[in-house]
């Protein structure tokens, strides 16, 4: 099937304005008759639930954490992009649009990206009004910093905790709606199934994580804002509870999964220290503004970094990309770091690390300035590694961080299942094959505050409110299915823990479907994943009961889904016989090692339809056309 | 893998186990073996749990999520101190190198009237949510707000707001307070919003509503012990409590 993103035709500059006018409206008196279920309370979900509640809809919001404020958007550090052009350095909506399309290696939809750039400015205004304490200068004006993949300073920030502050802004807006009675919050509640009635999304089945109760909530539309799936690698920068479960179970109920192979490996994370490790910690990319990446020129040079003289250091990013230098985009910086280590020039345990050195900046600006800019990051680094980065360079290594792929949606953020909307990292829409730094926060809030409030009305206006009741047979069936799965987990009583399976899966994925992929490695993964999945269902051990707080049971469900999803991710990576952005196939590279796209054959979004576990999924294509940015080789030299 | 991991430790844990809100609880003893100094405290607990599961026993339930000290989910009293007593550090960022071989560690849940125990080390912190819902926001609408630079905010005020806004809502301040007071938590939000021009309009109403909610939800009063500041993993200062008191006085005379 050829998919249609339903993008507005005509000049892109006015596309969103014209589209907004064409969308149907729900009149204020009717809004309260519609119930909207919002799953996830991060930037996208929190902003959506608050905005929809404020408009007068009857909203139910769900999160697995004990508070909406703990969604993983909270961990984003560096900043949020907007095309304000406050520094007068040449920025514009057009340039942010252009940089995002180019940064995504020409694998995103133009119209969606334009809209994102256009509403980026409203986001900053909105957050300021909420009381988000963005960094300001002494005159009281908002401050900006630069970020990877851009030559202008368009990133707004709140120390090294921008995600936290933006999320607390959305959370406060949500709290206001809870008090007003328009939003009902369900915390410690995990979505385990999508209820589809007559082809439309009309409910979700959830598990109350405290009591273990499994029940269905019905509504007139479902909004998924449940984040990304890089915990498929086991070790990643995501929170422990982040999973593919909500989107994967929607996928199993008919929603297409688009571009699952596009994952972002972040270049600046603290290297792994041992086998015990449960997660990897990111150090904001903003550090590359003042830190210089280098590796020793000689293989196996294990002198302490401060004793290696200038002439024996290779500032590889500055050498290879003189115009962007240390601010090259993430995929490029990550691969470059891996390259240094693969050549035997890595530093630290196992030689899996490169230096990020602040000595020059400290000399130029003083330690106090560096402390003011990145103090909390240096502190965090010291807690984890026991090293003082004001004195010795930080050691960095790439780690899985973000997923550009996600459920397929059209221009309205609506999936192919009518009534199912997908926002933020959970959808596939704007970042193409690689996301630029400080653009995830922008997308989450754009979708939640400024897109879904308009587009969901267009769907609701065509439906009768309250059409599906809780006693619908589909609801009963969904509850029975989830109960059966729970009982299955508890009855296997095997020998291996859920974590052991997750760790094994992570290893397969990191080695075969990680930063560099080949036909051979992908086929190897596709051989190993089903074997591991089969073993899981025979040999996993989950203790306790279903009707209680049971964290092992929660994890079992998430890992079971990763074991299915991993196969689709590998299949997508194998099918995409080109390199683009974060998807690097070693068979397709330029003589200098850069990703080599194949626009002739692969200039499309790959949306997969579920056909049963272990069965071949069906591929649907949405062709991508570039009318405003010319398809070109991405160069940051 | 790491050069650091050679000298592993054995640690005796005394962990609070409680099956449910109304079940009796008690300290149970466990042995944590082969603990690497580079391990985080929660990773050490993970390994104890792996052994428990394999032995067919119920693993220790504890809250955690981001494991990088920002989500505020983790919540254990370690050797009598919320988050373990390392300055500006959450339990998830506490590393085992701060302990030594042979140590005994006591691990308990947040203990406060406002935080009923759900299971083992997990408590119900909804009372904190209700304080925020009472007034921890500016009543701005989505859209229809002025340009971000339309109202200037001098750097010292922006910085002051940011210092207060660093609160991660973990509740360590409540657990550390002999009165189980939520003053530090509440004052951080009151201070952040009352210093910013965007929050000033509703400052009086907000501080009254949030203080009322604090009292209605089972939190004690503040009697200036400052244990909250000492336990706070983000170093939130008690100066914000003084700010709350000033704002509250102003509101009463309004």
From TrEMBL, chain A:
It catalyses: a quinone + succinate = fumarate + a quinol. Its cofactor is FAD. One of its GO terms (cellular component) is plasma membrane. GO terms for molecular function: electron transfer activity; flavin adenine dinucleotide binding; succinate dehydrogenase (quinone) activity. Its EC number is 1.3.5.1. It is a peripheral membrane protein. Residues 502-636 form the Fumarate reductase/succinate dehydrogenase flavoprotein-like C-terminal domain. It is found in: Cell membrane. SUPFAM superfamilies: FAD/NAD(P)-binding domain (SSF51905), Succinate dehydrogenase/fumarate reductase flavoprotein C-terminal domain (SSF46977), Succinate dehydrogenase/fumarate reductase flavoprotein, catalytic domain (SSF56425). Keywords: Cell membrane, Electron transport, FAD, Flavoprotein, Membrane, Oxidoreductase, Transport. The keyword Transmembrane helix does not apply. It is an enzyme of class 1 (oxidoreductase). NCBIfam families: PRK07573.1, sdhA_Bsu. PANTHER family: SUCCINATE DEHYDROGENASE 2 FLAVOPROTEIN SUBUNIT (PTHR11632), SUCCINATE DEHYDROGENASE FLAVOPROTEIN SUBUNIT (PTHR11632:SF53). This is succinate dehydrogenase. Pfam families: FAD_binding_2 (PF00890), Succ_DH_flav_C (PF02910). Belongs to the FAD-dependent oxidoreductase 2 family. FRD/SDH subfamily.
From TrEMBL, chain B:
It comes from Geomonas silvestris. The gene is frdB. One of its GO terms (molecular function) is metal ion binding. InterPro entries: 2Fe-2S_ferredoxin-like_sf, 2Fe2S_fd_BS, 4Fe4S_Fe-S-bd, 4Fe4S_Fe_S_CS, Beta-grasp_dom_sf, Helical_ferredxn, SDH/FRD_Iron-Sulfur, Succ_DH/fum_Rdtase_N. Belongs to the succinate dehydrogenase/fumarate reductase iron-sulfur protein family. Its cofactor is [3Fe-4S] cluster; [2Fe-2S] cluster. The keyword Iron-sulfur applies. The keyword Iron applies. This is Succinate dehydrogenase. One of its GO terms (biological process) is aerobic respiration. Keywords: Iron, Iron-sulfur, Metal-binding. Residues 158-187 form the 4Fe-4S ferredoxin-type domain. It holds the Pfam family Fer4_10.
């Amino acid at each position: 099937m050829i998919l249609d993103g339903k993008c507005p035709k005509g000049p892109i500059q006015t596309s969103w304005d014209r589209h907004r006018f064409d969308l149907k409206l729900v009149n204020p008196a009717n809004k309260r008759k519609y119930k909207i279920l919002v799953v996830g309370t991060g930037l996208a979900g929190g902003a959506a639930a608050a905005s929809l509640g404020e408009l007068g809809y009857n909203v139910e919001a769900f999160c697995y954490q004990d508070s909406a404020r703990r969604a993983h958007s909270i961990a984003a550090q560096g900043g949020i992009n907007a095309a304000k052009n406050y520094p007068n350095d040449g920025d514009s909506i057009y340039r942010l649009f252009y940089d995002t399309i180019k940064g995504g290696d020409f694998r995103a939809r133009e119209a969606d990206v334009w809209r994102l750039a256009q509403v980026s400015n409203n986001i900053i205004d909105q957050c300021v009004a909420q009381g988000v304490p963005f960094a300001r200068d002494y005159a009281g004006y908002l401050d900006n910093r630069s970020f990877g993949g851009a030559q202008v300073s368009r990133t707004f920030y709140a120390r090294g905790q921008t995600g936290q502050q933006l999320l607390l802004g959305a959370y406060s807006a949500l709290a206001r709606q809870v008090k007003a009675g328009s939003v009902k919050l369900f915390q410690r509640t995990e979505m385990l199934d999508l209820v589809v009635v007559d082809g439309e999304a009309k409910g979700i089945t959830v598990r109350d994580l405290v009591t273990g109760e499994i029940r269905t909530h019905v509504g007139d539309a479902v909004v998924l804002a449940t984040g990304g799936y890089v915990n498929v690698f086991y070790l990643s920068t995501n929170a422990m509870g982040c999973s593919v479960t909500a989107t994967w179970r929607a996928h199993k109920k008919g929603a297409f999964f688009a571009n699952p192979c596009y994952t972002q490996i972040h270049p600046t994370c603290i290297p792994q220290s041992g086998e015990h490790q449960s997660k990897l910690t990111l150090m904001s990319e903003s550090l590359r503004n003042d830190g210089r990446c280098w590796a020793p020129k000689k293989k196996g040079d294990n002198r302490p970094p401060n004793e290696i003289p200038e002439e024996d250091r290779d500032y590889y990013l500055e050498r290879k990309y003189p115009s962007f230098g240390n601010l090259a985009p993430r995929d490029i910086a990550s691969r470059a770091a891996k390259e240094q280590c693969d050549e035997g020039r890595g530093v630290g345990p196992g030689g899996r690390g490169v230096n990020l050195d602040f000595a020059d900046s400290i000399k130029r600006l003083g330690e106090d300035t560096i402390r003011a800019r990145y103090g909390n990051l240096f502190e965090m680094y010291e807690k984890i590694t026991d090293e003082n980065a004001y004195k010795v360079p930080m050691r960095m290594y790439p780690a899985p961080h973000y997923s550009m792929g996600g459920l397929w949606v059209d221009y309205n953020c609506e999936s192919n299942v009518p009534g199912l909307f997908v926002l933020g990292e959970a959808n596939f829409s704007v970042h193409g094959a690689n996301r630029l730094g400080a653009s995830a926060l922008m997308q989450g809030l754009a979708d939640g505050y400024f897109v879904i409030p308009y587009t969901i009305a267009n769907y609701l206006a065509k439906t009768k409110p309250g059409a599906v009741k809780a006693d619908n047979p589909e609801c009963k069936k969904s509850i029975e299915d989830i109960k059966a799965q729970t009982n299955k987990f508890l009855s296997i009583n095997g020998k291996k823990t859920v974590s052991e399976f997750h760790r094994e899966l992570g290893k397969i994925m990191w080695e075969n479907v990680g930063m560099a992929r080949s036909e051979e490695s992908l086929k190897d993964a596709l051989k190993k994943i089903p074997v591991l999945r089969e073993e899981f269902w025979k040999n996993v051990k989950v203790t306790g009961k279903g009707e209680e707080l049971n964290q092992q049971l929660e994890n079992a469900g998430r890992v079971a889904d990763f074991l299915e999803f991993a196969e689709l991710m590998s299949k997508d990576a194998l099918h995409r016989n080109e390199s683009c952005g974060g998807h690097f196939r070693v068979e397709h590279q330029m003589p200098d090692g850069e990703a080599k796209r194949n626009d002739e054959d692969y200039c499309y979004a790959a949306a997969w339809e579920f056909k049963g576990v272990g069965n071949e999924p069906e591929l649907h294509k949405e062709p991508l056309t570039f009318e405003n940015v010319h398809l070109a080789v991405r160069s940051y030299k | 893998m790491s050069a650091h991991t050679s000298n592993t430790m054995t640690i005796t844990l005394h962990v609070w186990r409680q099956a449910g809100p109304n079940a009796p609880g008690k300290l149970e003893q466990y042995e944590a073996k082969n603990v690497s100094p580079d391990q985080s405290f929660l990773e050490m607990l993970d390994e104890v749990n792996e052994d428990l599961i394999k032995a067919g026993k119920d693993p220790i339930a504890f809250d955690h999520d981001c494991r990088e000290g920002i989500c505020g989910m983790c919540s254990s009293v370690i050797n009598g101190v919320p988050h373990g007593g390392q300055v500006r550090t959450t339990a998830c960022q506490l590393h085992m190198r701060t302990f030594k071989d042979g140590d005994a560690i006591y691990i308990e849940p947040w203990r406060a009237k406002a935080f009923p125990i759900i299971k083992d080390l997990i408590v119900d912190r909804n009372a904190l949510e209700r304080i925020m819902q009472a007034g921890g926001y500016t009543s701005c609408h989505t859209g229809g707000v002025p340009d971000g630079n339309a109202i200037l905010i001098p750097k010292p005020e922006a910085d002051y707001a940011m210092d207060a806004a660093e609160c991660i809502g973990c509740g360590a301040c409540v657990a550390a307070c002999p009165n189980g007071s939520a003053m530090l938590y509440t004052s951080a939000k009151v201070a952040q919003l009352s210093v910013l021009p965007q929050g000033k309009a509703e400052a009086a109403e907000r501080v009254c509503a949030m203080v009322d909610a604090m009292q209605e939800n089972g939190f004690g009063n503040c009697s200036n012990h400052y244990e909250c500041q000492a336990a706070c993993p983000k170093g939130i200062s008690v100066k914000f409590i003084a700010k709350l008191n000033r704002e509250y006085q102003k509101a009463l005379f309004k």
